[in-house]
Specification:
Helix content is about 55%, strand content about 10%. It is of the alpha/beta class. Strand 10 and strand 11 form a beta hairpin. The protein is globular. The two termini are about 25 Å apart. The C terminus is likely disordered.
């Protein structure tokens, strides 16, 4: 490459890197401001900006050769749009706009989309101008995104969510500086952009830029505390790739601090002091009496060891230790939680000080357990939900994987013979889904529903509910002992169940001397326990969806029957937009080339880029979703899978530049078939991976992911080179636009299919889509009977056909 060619490559790389850093950072910012499922909405709309920007390049900016400096200013505006959008998002008083009915929500959408639109305009121009080198430039685009994935993780770990947004602007500023240097433009403008974005980035260290506000939503516990008259004060705060973790003090609870992730799902840090009087200790303990309940009946030989998933602020460790558990292993997914607890050991009595009796580990609880050979008397999960958005690849929460059929089978495998799982849940609906899922796990182990119900009991304290599942059936004596205490303290509502006992009616008195009778035990569970109904029938009439959850369909916390309204609305909007863009592209192709040469297969080409965008995103998301559970920590897992896949696609794209122009359509067919076969191969190797050690399994998955990436990076740049061969460079922005909008539509469609049929089906569907592309590419080849000289693909310098005057004339002339 000459200096001009190299500058365009590096400009593409840094622009793509900035987009990825901004996208990941945006998920973290919006996870604080919004509810987690609306993060999915905003990011989806924002990504539309890439496609819309590409369309804008084709419709309005294709003639910029008449305005020599305007192209440079588009790159400059794009660089500054990253930090400016970040500051606006956290500065404007819009945090109440968290759904489709609020104007603020749409303002969020607009602000978040602007940087993507500038990037779409600029990248579409680059690929339109140097279409003959599309594969090399696309490799730069993909490798830049891979580096951006690592950069985003690094910035989130060491700065903050908003700091990472500022950092994306600085990365884009480097791209602008390279652009000016490579095009012989006085570099003062590029230096000014880099300095300006650098100052904003440094502002995130010096707190010149504002702090991210907690969203005004009742699901945000920290916001709800302030609205209820309490006086929360943030005494310590940490940022990482996991999210923002705040340590909060409330004057009404002097013996307790609370830890929140992105303002939600608080976990207590309890004051432990040797000088504390007995009355105060009892008051503190009484608040968590429901968790003490199952420990109080265990003999010493059943309290040898406990495995605690999600100990948070240390309350679960304190309860286990105070009830006589001898050896405790606690696994916390959020490293900042552990760090904050240890930093405030003077308050909590050093609850996380490791020693002979306590082992604290960082990771995803289920994966750490899977990789262990130990068995435990107690496996404890107390409200393990963060209501936080830590990724952008799906609609599910990380915690969903803790409560699947496969998870329960792993818990059973890691229990001692008298071991049990203790799960603290939010209410009846969660308990019923847990029961439904655990029953399916028992069925797979050969235990039918009626017998399996002897392994359960459930009690409640009026707000929360406790479900205990024992590896061996409870005896009648064990049930009797526990039920006596339940009767004494009326621990029946919102849900209660004990095997062997008959249903009774509770007499309850309400204000106004209204007297009603209500069942003591949950009726559906009673019907299953007595053999009246199977679980599928017993829960059929329940108003919420409590069907079993699997790793293939990991949506435990989605209890609404049918699709969530947000997914339906998104899919309709994106499908309409995709249809409009396809229609507009068809009109433009017909209008622009009717006078040049008839016969260009516009419909077939449009079908190619549309299916390609849909299939690529569906395959990518299903691969992420299937691979992430095999890693110890979700943030690292997503970074690794992104880097491996994007690096593989980048290398594949780079190599495809060497393919001869006379063989482009054959290359497309071969690549499509290879991708389809590799996707099907993924579906087949997962059972093999499950038989390997965790380390070996990860290596196999990473290797197969990289192998899949090689052909995955070939089709789109090859289609762009095909346009160059056919002298159709003006179609490039439309191809980018359709592909971008189809990709976002594919992400929503992938989640919909996953909720209906599971991620395995999505992966297979994506494979079939790529195989169908081979048929489409064959039709494309047949519609263009063209014989080229075998030397037509001589590697030459980057040159511009549609905008040669822009490529050759300095923009500051």
């Amino acid at each position: 490459m000459n200096s001009r060619s190299s500058s365009i490559f590096w400009t593409t790389l840094f622009t793509s890197m900035a987009i990825l850093v901004y996208e990941v950072a945006l998920t973290r910012v919006f996870s604080v401001i919004l509810n987690y499922h609306f993060v999915f909405v905003v990011i989806s709309f924002a990504l539309l900006g890439l496609g819309l920007g590409s369309m804008a390049q084709g419709l309005w900016f294709r003639g910029l050769s008449r305005f020599r400096t305007l192209r440079l200013w588009l790159f400059i505006a794009g660089a500054f749009s990253f930090p400016v959008s970040g500051v606006l998002l956290v500065s404007l008083p819009l945090t109440a706009g968290v759904d489709f009915s609020h104007l603020g929500f749409y303002i969020y959408l607009g602000i978040a989309t602007v940087p993507f639109m500038f990037a779409g305009i600029n990248l579409a121009w680059i690929f339109q101008t140097w279409t003959d080198r599309a594969a090399v430039l696309y490799a730069g685009d993909l490798i830049g995104a891979a580096i951006g994935a690592v950069g985003a993780w690094f910035l989130l770990e060491h700065v903050s969510g908003l700091g990472a947004v500022m950092g994306s602007g600085m990365v884009a500023g480097i791209g602008v500086l390279i652009f000016t240097l490579g095009r012989h433009i006085t570099p003062i403008r590029g230096v000014a952009v880099l300095l300006g974005t650098g100052v904003l980035f440094l502002g995130s260290f010096l707190t010149i830029v504002p702090e991210i506000p907690i969203g005004q939503d009742t699901d945000k516990d920290l916001y709800r505390m302030g609205k209820s008259g309490l006086s929360p004060e943030i005494v310590d705060s940490r940022w990482s790739a996991f999210g923002r973790t705040d340590l909060v003090k409330d004057s009404h609870s002097p013996h307790e601090l609370a830890l929140y992730v992105d303002g939600a799902a608080g976990t207590p840090m309890i004051h432990v002091d040797s000088t504390m009087n007995q009355k105060t200790k009892l008051q503190i303990i009484s608040r968590w009496a429901l968790q003490y309940f199952p420990y109080s009946f265990l003999p010493e030989n059943e309290k040898e060891s406990a495995y605690i998933i999600g100990p948070g602020g240390g309350k679960d460790v304190l309860i286990a230790r105070s009830t006589g558990v001898k050896q405790i292993t606690a696994v916390e997914v959020n490293p900042d939680m552990v760090e904050l607890v240890r930093d405030h050991s003077d308050f909590n009595g050093g609850i996380y000080a490791e020693g002979d009796q306590l082992d604290i580990m960082i990771g995803e609880g289920r994966q750490v357990l899977r990789n262990s050979d130990s068995t435990y008397d107690i496996i404890s999960l107390a409200l393990p939900i963060t209501k936080s958005r830590r990724s952008y690849e799906s609609y599910a929460l990380t915690e969903d994987y803790l409560f699947t059929v496969e998870a329960f089978q792993e818990y059973f495998d890691h229990m001692t013979q008298e071991g049990r799982v203790m799960i603290l849940a939010h209410g009846e609906t969660e308990v019923l889904r847990l029961v439904s899922t655990a029953l399916r796990a028992f069925e797979l182990n050969g235990i039918e529903n009626t017998t399996a119900m002897k392994h359960f009991y459930a009690v409640s304290d009026g707000m929360m509910a406790l479900l205990v599942i024992k590896k061996q059936p409870f005896t009648r004596q064990e049930v009797s002992n526990r039920h006596q205490l339940v009767e004494k303290f009326q621990l029946h509502k919102p849900v209660a169940y004990f095997p062997y006992l008959e249903q009774e009616q509770l007499h309850m008195m309400f204000p106004g001397e209204q007297h009603i009778e209500t069942p003591m035990f949950q009726q559906a569970m009673m019907d299953i326990g007595t053999g009246r109904f199977k679980s599928e029938v017993a829960f059929m009439d329940y108003p919420m969806d409590v069907s079993p959850v699997t790793d293939n369909q990991p949506f435990f916390y989605d209890f609404k029957k049918g699709l969530p309204g947000t997914l339906t609305i998104l899919f309709i909007i994106f499908a309409i937009l995709l249809g409009l863009i396809i229609y507009q592209t068809k009109i433009r192709i017909s209008a622009q080339f009717a006078a040049v040469r008839s016969g260009f297969p516009g419909k077939t080409f449009i079908a190619s880029v549309t299916i390609l965008g849909l299939a690529f995103m569906m395959g990518e998301l299903s691969l992420f979703q299937k691979i992430v559970p095999y890693f110890r920590h979700p943030s690292i897992a997503l970074t690794v899978t992104l880097v491996v896949l994007l690096t593989g696609t980048g290398i594949g794209s780079w190599v495809s530049q060497r393919f001869r122009e006379s063989n482009l359509l054959n290359t497309l067919r071969i690549a499509a078939v290879a991708i389809g076969v590799l996707f099907f191969g993924f579906r087949m190797i997962f059972p093999l991976v499950d038989t390997l050690s965790m380390e070996a399994g990860r290596l196999v998955l990473i290797a197969w992911l990289f192998l899949t990436g090689l052909p995955l990076g070939t089709p789109f740049p090859t289609l762009l080179r095909f346009l160059h061969r056919e002298d159709r460079q003006d179609i490039v922005p439309y191809a980018w636009g359709i592909n971008g909008v189809a990709s976002v539509t594919g992400s929503v469609f992938a989640v919909i299919l996953a909720k209906w049929f599971g991620w395995n089906f999505v992966l297979v569907f994506a494979g079939i889509a790529y195989l169908s592309l081979a048929v489409v590419f064959t039709r494309l080849r047949n519609l263009i009977p063209r014989t080229l000289n075998s030397d037509a693909d001589d590697a030459g310098p980057l040159v511009s056909k549609p905008e040669a005057d822009v490529a050759e004339i300095p923009l500051n002339a």
